[in-house]
Design goal:
Keywords: Antibiotic resistance, ATP-binding, Nucleotide-binding, Transport. By secondary structure, the protein is α/β, with parallel strands linked by helices. Helices cover 32% and strands 29% of the residues.
């Protein structure tokens, strides 16, 4: 199986500043790959290298089996940039029709179909589009020619929740058709429902590549439990994965690493009247990986 993306030692420095260093990455046909990291981590640099917008300092990349410098590969890619500049008096529908012609044609009705799904008004001049509507036009131009490979940089910015769900449905359809998606984001929730695997990048380096299920197990959650009567602290002490435990009468709060099984079994001995769980925090997942890497480095230095 030929990888859709394969990089070896891919590196980009901007003067002395590291944009990306020694990226070894493989994205397989038919998968949705989430590329996660805080702003400035190296995600957009990676995408620009794959699109041949910038050239690497060293290393190499192959996209759809060929060198990114080959102009023919661009027609096989759909791309949504993180910063989308749409200006002027031209109506959004006219702009999309023009792009469709440049790309060799889009099947009849395709632009209208996508606009209806995303609730995009294509009669508005591009210079007057709101941020959310600009994002919708950007998504339409990325999806409309049904490319083999979609690269989406921060795709849901400015979209309301219902439109976000429709967008995620479109991504699932791309995967179901055997095509491939690279979705860059700093928001875990944006990719966790559709991604098969995720790569985490930090300060220009790939920290980890994980299956989504494995990443969720590493996630840190904040939990609150409320009971119908005060509960004894000793019933919840020394539970695996439970940290920062605080019990105040009939209320319990804690931080949970990984699976909640032990905590739920302990709580089931009492009457729970309310439970709330904060979504996993991406920064905390990063910190978990960083501390693991630092610990491994300390062990290696000690062994040496």
């Amino acid at each position: 199986m030929t990888a859709v993306v394969k990089t070896e030692g891919l590196t980009k420095f901007y003067g002395r500043r590291r944009g990306l260093e020694d990226l070894d990455l493989e994205i397989l046909p038919g998968e949705v790959f989430g590329y996660l990291g805080p702003n400035g981590a190296g995600k957009t640099t990676t995408i620009r290298l794959l699109l041949d917008v910038i050239r690497p300092t060293r290393g190499r990349a192959r996209v759809l089996g060929t060198d990114p410098r080959d102009p023919r590969v661009r027609a096989r890619i759909g791309y949504l940039p993180g910063e989308l500049a749409l200006e002027g008096r031209e109506r959004a529908g006219e702009y999309l029709a023009f792009l469709g012609g440049v790309r060799g044609g889009v099947r009849p009705g395709r632009i209208t179909e996508l606009a209806e799904r995303l609730e995009a008004d294509l009669s508005v001049p591009m210079g007057k589009l709101s941020k959310g509507n600009k994002q919708k036009v950007g998504l339409i131009q990325a999806f409309m020619h049904e490319p083999e490979f979609l690269i989406l940089d921060e795709p849901t910015g400015g979209l309301d929740p219902l439109v976000q769900q429709e967008f995620l449905a479109m991504v699932r359809e791309v995967r179901a058709s055997g095509r491939t998606v690279l979705m860059s984001s700093h928001v875990l929730a944006e990719v966790e429902d559709v991604a098969d695997r995720v790569g985490i990048v930090r300060a220009g380096r790939l920290v980890a590549v994980e299956e989504v299920a494995a990443l969720k197990e590493k996630a840190v959650r904040r939990l609150e439990l409320h009971f119908d009567a005060p509960v004894p602290a000793e019933a919840f002490e020394d539970l695996p994965g439970v940290r920062d435990l605080r019990i105040n009468g009939a209320s319990l709060s804690c931080t949970l690493d990984g699976r909640p099984d032990a905590l739920i079994k302990a709580a089931a001995r009492f009457t729970v009247v309310h439970l709330s769980s904060a979504e996993p925090d991406l920064e905390e997942i990063f910190l978990a990986y960083y501390s693991e890497n630092d610990e491994e480095g300390r062990h290696a230095r000690a062994a040496g």
